[in-house]
Each structure stands twice: as C-alpha cells, then as structure tokens.
Recover the amino acids of this structure.
C-alpha cells in the first residue's frame, strides 16, 4: 500500500484522470497529488472515500461533483461549479472560483480564499445532519444564495467591503442562511430575502468557521472575528404558497 | 355585487330505495360528500370531484352522478369552463392550478391515423405460431463496427455504449414519490420488473423499499436535484435528466410542504414540511454545451456504465433541441407531448403550451435522420399514450419506445378526476395520507398494471403480425404503414405520411 500517489495530469483527458484517481483510492492511497492540472473537468466526480487530493493547477468545471467524503485542496483558481451537488467532504481553493460555486450542495464544506462569480451557493439544501457550508474569503457577484433552501454561506469580504454594487442576494431563498461581513443594504437583497444584524449565538457559530478558514490559508482570524456582519434569511419558508388557486 | 356561487359541477344522488345505509360511501369519500344522519344518507354535491370511489364501493349501485346538472346559457365561445375560470380569478387574483393532462378540445392526431394490414401479397404473420420480436434496446448504436482478426478469431474492436434491454417498448414514465404514494410506486415497480421493462423515479429520490426493483428503475436528475447523491445514481438502471415536462413546458416543479411527510422528506433529502421547489432551468444549464457537461458529469460519476436520457417537453423547436441532445453524449431523448399528465400545473400551461407528441416525434426522427445521427440516441415518446394503437402509431412515426403515465394510474383505479393537487386521492395514488395510501394494495395494483402492459404488448404483436412485421425494429419509423385520415396536407407533410387511399 502506498500512502501518497502522484499523478502527472499533463495533457490527460478527464476520464483517464478520474480512472487513475479511483484506482489510487482503491489501492488504499490516503493522499493523491495531481500535477499540471489544466482545465480537466469533473475531477473527483462521484468519488467516495477518506482521501486527500491535492490539485496543482486549475481544475475545470464541476470539481467534486456528487463527491462523497474526500478532501480536495486546489493550489490555483477553479472554474465554475466546484462542489456541484456535493454530498460530503471538503474543497479548499487557494484562489478564485467561477459561477455557481456549491450549486445544490447537500453537505460538506467549501472554502475559497478569494472571490467567486455569480450565483454562488445556488439552491444549497440541508437535511438532518447534512448541512453544507460555503465560506468565501473575498466577495461574490450577484444572486448569491439564489433559491437557497438550506445550509450556510459566509462571506468574509477580506478584500474590501462586500457587496459593492451587487444585488439579488438570496433571491428566492426559502431556507438556510447567508452571513456577510460588510454593509448590506435593502437594495442588495433579492426577492424573498430579509436582513438582520448578527446575533451573539450566530457569532459563536461562525467563529470556528473563520478559524478554520484562516487556518487553511495562514491568515490572522482576529480582524474577522469581531467585525460587523449581516444575516440574510428567508422572509418566508413558503414563497409560492399564495400564488395559486385551485381549479375546483 | 358579489359573484355568488357557481353552479354545481357534479350532482350526486342516492337512490334511497336501494340504499341499505351501510355507510361505505361516507367512509370512501375524503372530500366529505356524504354524511349519515339517523336513517338517512345526506349529500353535499358541491365538494364532489367525480372520483367515483363511492360509486365503486356502493354494494347496491345506489349512487349516481350527473356532470353539470345546471345549464349555463349555451355559447360556443363563452363555455362554462371559461366563465368559471373568470369567476375564480375575479375572486382570488391568482394562477389557476389544475391537474392531469391537457383538457382543451384539440384534435387528436392519433385518432386521424390508421394502420396497415396485409392482404394477399406479403402475408401476415400469426404471432401465436411465429416469433415476434418485441424486445428492443435503448441507447446509442455504433455508426459502424470495427473488427480485428486475432489468431483466426474475429474480435469486435468497437467499444459499445451501455443500452437498456426492454422486453416490450412500453415503459412507465417519471412520477415521483411525493406526487404519487409509495404504494403506487411499489405497484408500478413490481409490474415493470415482472414485465421486463422500466419505470422512472421522478424527481423524488428512490425510497429504500424500492431498492429490490432498482434494476428496472430510471433515476431522475431534475433542476432541484432532490434525493440525488452518488448512491442514487449508481442504483438506477439508467439516469434521466429532466429538462422539461409536457404538461407544463418551461416551468419547474413545486411539491407543496404539506405533501412533504417524514418519509417523503427522507427520500428527497429535505426537511419535513418544507416546500420542494424545482426551478424552471437547471442552474448549470444555459446552453447545449452546458447540457453536454451535465450529461458527461453523470456518466463520469457512474464510470460510463449507465445510459443517460434527456427529457424535454415537446415544443416548437424540439427537433433542433433533440439534435443538440444527440450530440451531447446522451443515449436517449425523451419527448413529452402536450397531453402529458401531471399532479399539478397551472391551467394556462397545461392547456395551451407545447405541441402534440405525434408531430414532435416525427419531426425529431426526421431531423436526426437528415443529420445522420439517428443512431446516436433512442427516441422515447410520452404524453397522451392511451392504448396499444397509439404505441404502434408513434413507433411507426419514429419512436423507439414509449412512456405511459396516466394509463398506468388508470390501471390502478384512477378515474382521471384531475384533482391530484388536493392530495386527497381516494384511490391511494396521488396522496400521502396514510389511510388513503393504505387503500392501494400493491399485490393487486401491480398485477393490474402488469396485465395492462401484457395486454398492450399482445395487441401490439397482433397489429405487427397483421402488417407482416415481425420485429419492433421493422416498425420503427415505418411511415408507409400509416395513412392520414382527414388530416390536412401540412400535418401529413410533417408526419411524412400519405393520405388514406394513396
């Protein structure tokens, strides 16, 4: 049994790459290091197990889609939708990520050091012990947490205050919570979202996440722990409840 | 001035000479039409939905039902339905929610198509004595085969894509647990397993009591991604991406919180009592290229072992969309016509959006053939398939197989009352109320559904035999065996068929 397996992904198509990853996991590897990753989609798609995958380079879309258990650490930026419909496990991104990060994520955690694109955390949902968490170090573009049905999105706004201009936060949200450091006005909120100040128990809830985040990226948690945060939650758990009348 | 109450939709009357006061009507009706006071059954017809449960349970045939016992002034344009919709919306200001399929009186193309039979030349085949090939394979077929000679052996070099083997081209479409009851899903699952065919899970996850039938289940991935994880994907015999649905093209789904009971919540993986909202688009699909990415992500997750289907509603440009789907690595395209059923859809969509399955299948088949990619995908037709003749006709128009939905529910007792959205289905089908669900016995209902599939399969083989056709492959796209009866020129051109007599 080999503890760490290195795979050179240079010029490799994603299917043989995933095959090699699955074979490494099957052989009992606890750590897999992928070098020269350049745009390969679907890395760790549907992968199970207790394994750490270090990705050196820029993975393509849908990193860790349907993933159940593994940890992916990306030394680089990510394309769109890392953590798409992810079940459990962790993704840590040392850089930026594209649109629809954590789309329909059901469990596990994603940490992005810098910024993400549009519609981050769209339709995240939770069930019993499965509660997905998305932590963004920088800021996010419009429609953050759209259709959100569960889980937690935490925006730390490290590089300037979030949001500057962006709007539609929590548009159609009917469950879960978005916590944002910085100033959020009603103008920034989407349909069906409302904002409140951070409560003490919520501050206690995010403290370990902030420490985890700063731990991953070697940052100082202190300026983040006691700053001002806003909490965005649904104004109704039944947004469509009053839209229809029965035919008979 | 107030609008007042609209006239009764149905009048229930009890023949008190026949009635023996057994009270079965009172027990049967979840809508509260009947009540027993002393030695008399009283009736409140206003809440009746014409589900016929009381009528089927009355041991004395003492109950009768009349539709629209009160006439409006007749008018060809201002029908009672139109007037009542206006009263409803004038009162509420809301979107009208309706059930089942399209209730508008559009002409049915199937009923204007006739099938062929052999006379004198080209003798017909007797399916009793001669083999009739009803089995078919759904999925990609290679455009050509490469072989290699190794030590005198001929070895196939072409890598074949996984196909679904169906013993009859009749499958059951996607009706989710939530929309229908667990007993209904179990009954369907047992029937398809017995018949060697398949059913869809709908977007409601796969309940663990259905795991024994998973090899006959097609698991659905829709925009809400409810109940989807890697275990679910691996359990299915195939995976279907739902883009759209014939009953409400362009809309998503919405399971109201009151239908999300403990068991439904567990299967969908959402909290009890919360609304399950499937948005109209998939959040990761905004183009054909994005669709390809979702298809491939599902294949990659399941190591390219499962066929992936893509279901679209039949709309104006279905043919071009299907051509895109055929190039996306998908293995089959499901086309759901505008008569497709549903538990709940806005009435305006159910009745006015989409096109008939007959035209959609013919144009998709023609488009794929013209581009030389018909082998890349199978075509599954659904939405308004009512009998074996419809199956034969739609296959002759180019489909590989069909999905039935409403027909399978009718086989379990559904009376097409169209009130599924109330969640009180007295037949135990479209409800989650435990006492109502218990009315549907999977032992009996599964046999009924299996009987229906067997009967249609027998009729299909007779129809094929009479036409001198001994395999489903030879019927597929065989438009010469169809003629249009009083169809107009432009429709016949789209269907690519001749008129009767030609």
């Amino acid at each position: 049994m080999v503890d760490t397996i290195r795979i050179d992904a240079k010029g490799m198509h994603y299917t043989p790459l995933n095959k090699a990853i699955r074979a490494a996991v099957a052989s009992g590897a606890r750590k897999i290091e992928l070098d020269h990753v350049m745009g390969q989609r679907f890395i760790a798609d549907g992968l199970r197990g207790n394994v750490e995958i270090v990705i050196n380079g820029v993975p393509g879309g849908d990193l860790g889609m349907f993933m159940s258990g593994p940890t992916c650490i990306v030394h680089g930026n990510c394309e769109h939708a890392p953590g798409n419909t992810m079940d459990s496990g962790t993704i840590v991104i040392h850089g930026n990520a594209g649109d629809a990060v954590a789309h329909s994520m059901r469990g596990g955690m994603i940490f992005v050091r810098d910024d993400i694109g549009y519609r981050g955390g769209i339709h995240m949902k939770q069930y019993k012990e499965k509660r997905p968490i998305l932590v963004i170090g920088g800021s996010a573009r419009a429609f953050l947490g759209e259709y959100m049905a569960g889980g937690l999105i935490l925006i730390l706004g490290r590089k300037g205050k979030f949001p500057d201009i962006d709007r539609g936060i929590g548009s159609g949200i009917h469950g879960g919570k978005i916590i944002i450091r910085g100033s959020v006005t009603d103008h920034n909120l989407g349909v069906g979202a409302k904002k409140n100040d951070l409560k003490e128990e919520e501050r206690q809830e995010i403290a370990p996440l902030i420490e985890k985040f700063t731990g991953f990226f070697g940052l100082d948690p202190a300026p983040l722990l006691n700053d001002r945060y806003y909490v965005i939650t649904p104004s109704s758990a039944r947004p469509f409840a009053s839209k229809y009348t029965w035919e008979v | 001035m107030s609008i007042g109450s609209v006239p009764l939709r149905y009048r229930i009357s009890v023949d008190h000479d026949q009635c023996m006061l057994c009270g079965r009507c009172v027990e049967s009706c979840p809508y509260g039409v009947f009540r027993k006071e002393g030695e008399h059954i009283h009736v409140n017809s206003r809440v009746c939905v014409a589900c016929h449960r009381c009528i089927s349970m009355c041991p004395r045939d003492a109950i009768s039902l009349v539709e629209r016992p009160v006439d409006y002034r007749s008018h060809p344009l201002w029908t009672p339905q139109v007037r009542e919709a206006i009263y409803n919306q004038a009162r509420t200001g809301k979107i009208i929610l309706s059930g089942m399929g399209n209730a508008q009186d559009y002409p049915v193309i199937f009923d204007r198509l006739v099938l062929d039979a052999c006379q004198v030349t080209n003798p017909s085949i007797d399916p009793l004595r001669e083999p009739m090939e009803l089995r078919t394979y759904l999925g990609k077929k290679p455009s050509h085969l490469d072989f290699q000679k190794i030590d005198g052996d001929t070895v196939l070099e072409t890598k074949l894509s996984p196909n679904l083997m169906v013993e009859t081209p009749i499958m059951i479409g996607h009706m989710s647990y939530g929309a229908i009851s667990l007993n209904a899903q179990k009954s369907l699952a047992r029937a398809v397993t017995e018949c060697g065919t398949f059913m869809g899970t709908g977007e409601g996850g796969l309940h663990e009591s259905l795991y024994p039938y998973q090899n006959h289940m097609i698991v659905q991935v829709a925009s809400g991604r409810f109940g989807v994880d890697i275990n679910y994907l691996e359990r299915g015999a195939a995976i279907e991406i739902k883009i759209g649905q014939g009953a409400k093209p362009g809309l998503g789904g919405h399971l109201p919180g009151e239908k999300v009971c403990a068991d439904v919540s567990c299967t969908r993986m959402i909290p009890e009592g919360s609304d399950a909202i499937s948005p109209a688009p998939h959040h990761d699909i905004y183009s054909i290229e994005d669709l390809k990415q979702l298809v491939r992500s599902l294949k990659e997750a399941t190591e390219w072992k499962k066929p992936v289907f893509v279901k679209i509603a039949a709309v104006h440009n279905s043919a071009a969309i299907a051509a895109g789907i055929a190039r996306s690595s998908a293995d089959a395209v499901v086309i759901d016509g505008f008569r497709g059923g549903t538990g709940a859809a806005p009435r305006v969509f159910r009745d006015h959006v989409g096109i008939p399955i007959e035209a959609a299948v013919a144009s998709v088949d023609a488009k794929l053939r013209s581009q030389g990619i018909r082998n890349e995908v199978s075509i599954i037709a659904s939405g308004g398939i009512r009998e074996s003749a419809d199956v034969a006709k739609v296959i002759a128009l180019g489909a590989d197989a069909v999905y039935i939905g409403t027909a399978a529910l009718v086989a379990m007792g559904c009376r097409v009352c169209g009130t599924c959205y109330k969640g009180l289905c007295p037949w135990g089908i479209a409800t989650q109320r435990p006492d109502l669900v218990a009315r549907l016995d999977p032992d009996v209902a599964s046999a009924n559904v299996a009987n229906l599939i067997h009967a249609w399969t027998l009729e299909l083989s007779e129809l094929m035999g009479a036409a001198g056709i001994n395999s489903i492959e030879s019927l597929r796209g065989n438009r010469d065996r169809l003629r249009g009866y009083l169809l107009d020129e432009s429709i016949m051109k789209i269907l690519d068929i001749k008129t009767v007599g030609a």
